[in-house]
Write a structure and sequence with these properties.
The chain is of the alpha/beta class. It is about 50% helix and about 10% strand. Strand 6, helix 14 and strand 7 form a beta-alpha-beta unit. The protein is elongated. The two termini are about 70 Å apart.
Length: about 750
């Protein structure tokens, strides 16, 4: 006898239909396809075939029993005791009054197998049909499922009877298979009958009731575990029922207690299995469910050459709600967000909560990346509309990241991680929705490997510093900028922007800054001992400035190398004031107090403002190369540079232009009153030995810019001080740059060949 579930749903029926896929933690991608195909296999019209087949089997067997004159059910005390026990179980199932998962109980299965072992298939079918009719009558809206359920149970009983017949056991009401007749071979025969019954009924129920898109390895594994519990109960209880029915049938109703206890145990196991795949607060599926369902969607998309998409959504400023209104209010807010997310899901989409204020939406079929983006924007817009919380109107913005199969990843975990990367890009740039871009992903396996290699290179001293000169318009060398270079033993030269970004995001940046400072100061000390008193600039990141004790560590290194503070210049950006302005201001003031000069790098980009310029204790301002590159051909860039120079001079700051690569740009900068330039036109970044030769070729010791040229008059226009339209290159005597020791300007494109400075990535 197989009990009638209370609902049509699959395992974990409270979850969205179609919870499936091979979980990444328990099954590899290579195992997923065959598991999913097996679990999702469907036979068209299987329920109807089961009913028809069971009807034929039942009719044939009843006809044989009737024609042979055999009884269908035992009489006297045994018959009435079995009837009472069956009635108690039926009452238990009806009184339970809740949806039950298929194969979620074991009481009926234990009773059915016991009657089958003792009296054969006919009484077992009678009990099964009695349960089907009685429970189906109470739950009339489930009558179709009840019919299929009864048919499945009849076929299971038939399979068990055939297994007994195969070993020569033919129990009947007239000739029971009494325990006194059991020998040593009875145990494997009973096990075989129980296995046949369970296998047939559970497989037919799975393929008859589970929705088409479901292939659920985790649920399948848990179902197998529960079936193992049922099998143990059958082997333990069914023979005992048989013994009591044969010798003390009056005691049979007492078996209602252990049978109902067995049901309760399996019910608790089912609830715990559901909780393992469901978020307890919102009722949405959780991360494990999402991964499994995504595996199935990706497998289906791969077989049909379609696309799937995963949208990861994070609420902005949700923490402020928790901090202001309390966690209980935050929980109520999450419930409202979950309800709104359910209501706005596109057709066929499925939502999950990953934890905290992070949600995910799976689009099993996505026409294109554009359609996935459109769906994500719709969801973000819906979540960002005002909602009421305890009389308070709240507006929470959301950020979403989109990753698409197969373009961005071919496995569930990879798709989720890439959607997460895109989501943080959307949150950082405040764009609402972003699609994953590999070029912006800082945590690819390749980059992680590069991080380990960089750490080893720093320990081994394999990272080098090159030095690029800064030169005034009178040819005087104003200083050098230390630029980090790394030649990987296998990859060759690694672009500085790439490995510095890795160091910045991984926490290796302080180690890299320490290495650069130590190497640069050691080189400055050697130059000073050789009579070359050239100042060197080193870039530092906001993370360095925010580190406790940074100013003292810099002063200690200066003292250890015997280098005066004025010989070191630190290049910073305005980003140092954005995260922790008070600590940054204290650190910068301490550095200035030690006599270390500072230069404001990348001025004109990012968050440039007069407030920052006033608060930073800098003596030099560097105009970003993005404005200098088109200075000669873009009037707007030229005006920006002119106003920047005038502003800096009015504040007593020197101005250095980066990225100078042609004579016309040199002339325009000189006419605008710029103090010094840096770029290919002067010299590329050079190793220490070449830098030493380059400096000596300029007749020795450089001079500071303050002494090299007077401050131009502040005008609201081009500087009045102009030179001729022709000039010699800095430090030369009328010859070409080649004769001065500096490298010639490459003939390739500017963007492809310009050396990249050591710039912290913000």
């Amino acid at each position: 006898m197989q009990e009638i579930p209370g609902g049509h749903g699959p395992p974990h029926s409270s979850l969205p239909d179609g919870t499936s896929g091979s979980t990444g933690s328990t099954a590899g991608a290579e195992d997923a396809p065959w598991v999913q195909r097996l679990a999702a296999l469907r036979v068209p019209g299987l329920p109807l075939l089961v009913v028809v087949g069971a009807g034929i089997v039942l009719g044939t067997c009843v006809f044989r029993v009737v024609t042979d004159g055999r009884a269908l059910f035992p009489d006297a005390v045994t018959g009435w005791s079995l009837a009472v026990l069956t009635g108690v179980i039926v009452g238990h199932l009806v009184a339970l009054g809740r949806d039950r998962w298929w194969s979620g109980t074991g009481s009926g299965a234990a009773l059915t197998l016991a009657i089958l072992l003792l009296y054969g298939w006919a009484p077992a079918v009678v009990v099964s049909l009695a349960v089907v009719v009685l429970v189906g009558a109470v739950r009339r809206h489930r009558w179709r499922q009840a019919v299929v359920q009864g048919a499945v149970d009849i076929l299971g009983i038939g399979a068990a009877a055939l297994s007994l017949a195969a070993v020569g056991v033919h129990p009947s009401v007239a000739h029971p298979w009494r325990p006194a007749d059991w020998g040593y071979l009875a145990l494997p025969e009973v096990v075989m009958a129980a296995f046949a019954y369970l296998l047939v009924t559970r497989l037919l129920l799975w393929f008859s009731h589970v929705p088409h898109k479901t292939g659920l390895p985790t649920a399948l594994r848990r179902a197998l575990l529960r079936q193992g519990l049922v099998a143990i109960a059958l082997l333990g209880i069914s023979p005992l029922i048989t013994v009591v029915a044969a010798y003390r049938p009056i005691l049979l109703p007492l078996f209602a207690v252990p049978l109902i206890a067995l049901d309760s145990t399996l019910w608790i196991a089912r609830v715990r299995a559901e909780e393992a795949l469901r978020d307890p607060l919102t009722g949405l599926p959780n991360r494990q469910w999402l991964l499994e369902r995504t595996w199935t969607a990706l497998d289906e998309a791969d077989r049909t050459e379609a696309r799937s998409a995963l949208v990861l959504i994070d609420l902005d400023r949700f923490r402020s709600v928790n901090d202001t209104l309390g966690h209980l209010a935050g929980d109520r807010l999450l419930l409202k967000i979950a309800e709104r997310l359910r209501a706005e899901l596109p057709r066929g989409a499925e939502a999950a909560r990953l934890g905290g204020d992070e949600f995910a939406v799976l689009l099993p079929l996505a026409d294109s990346t554009t359609s996935a983006m459109r769906a994500a924007r719709t969801l973000v817009s819906a979540l960002g509309s005002p909602l009421d919380l305890d009389g308070l109107t709240l507006v929470l913005e959301a950020s979403a990241g989109v990753a698409v199969f197969p373009e961005h990843a071919r496995e569930a975990e990879g798709l989720l991680r890439r959607a997460d990367v895109a989501m943080y890009e959307a949150k950082r740039d405040r764009t609402g929705v972003e699609v994953y871009e590999a070029t912006r992903d800082e945590n690819t396996p390749d980059r992680l490997g590069l991080l380990a290699d960089l750490r080893r290179a720093l320990d081994a001293g394999e990272v080098e510093l090159h030095y690029q000169p800064k030169v005034g318009f009178d040819g005087v060398v104003a200083g050098l900028e230390a630029l980090v270079r790394w030649v990987h033993p296998e990859r060759g030269r690694v672009p500085p922007d790439e490995f510095i970004a890795i160091a910045e995001t991984s926490g290796l940046m302080p180690r890299l800054t320490e290495y650069v400072l130590e190497t640069a100061l050691a080189q400055v000390s050697r130059w000073r001992s050789d009579g070359l008193t050239v100042p060197v600039a080193v870039n530092v990141s906001p993370r360095d400035v925010h580190a406790p004790g940074f100013a003292g560590a810099v002063a200690g290194r200066l003292a250890r190398h015997g280098v005066p503070a004025g010989a070191l210049q630190l290049e910073i950006t305005e980003h140092v004031l954005l995260e922790d302005p008070h600590r940054a201001a204290d650190t910068l003031a301490a550095l200035a107090g030690h006599g270390v000069k500072m230069s404001l790098d990348d001025f004109g980009t990012g968050y440039s403002s007069l407030v920052h310029l006033r608060r930073l204790p800098v003596s030099e301002l560097k105009i970003d190369r993005s404005f200098v590159a088109r200075l000669a051909v873009d009037a707007e860039d030229a005006e920006i540079v002119r106003c920047t120079v005038d502003l800096a001079h009015s504040l007593g700051l020197l101005v250095v232009a980066e990225g100078v690569e042609d004579d016309e740009t040199w002339e325009r900068l000189r006419d605008l009153g710029c103090d010094a330039v840096q770029g290919w036109l002067v010299a590329a970044a050079m190793p220490p030995d070449e830098t030493t030769a380059w400096l000596r070729a300029r007749d020795g010791v450089p001079h500071s810019l303050e002494r090299a040229r007077p401050r131009p008059q502040l005008e609201c226009g081009p500087s009045a001080s102009t030179a001729g339209s022709t000039r010699s290159h800095p430090g030369s005597t009328g010859g070409s740059q080649h004769s001065t020791g500096g490298p010639s300007k490459p003939t390739q494109s500017h963007d492809a060949n310009r050396p990249t400075g050591w710039q912290p990535v913000q």
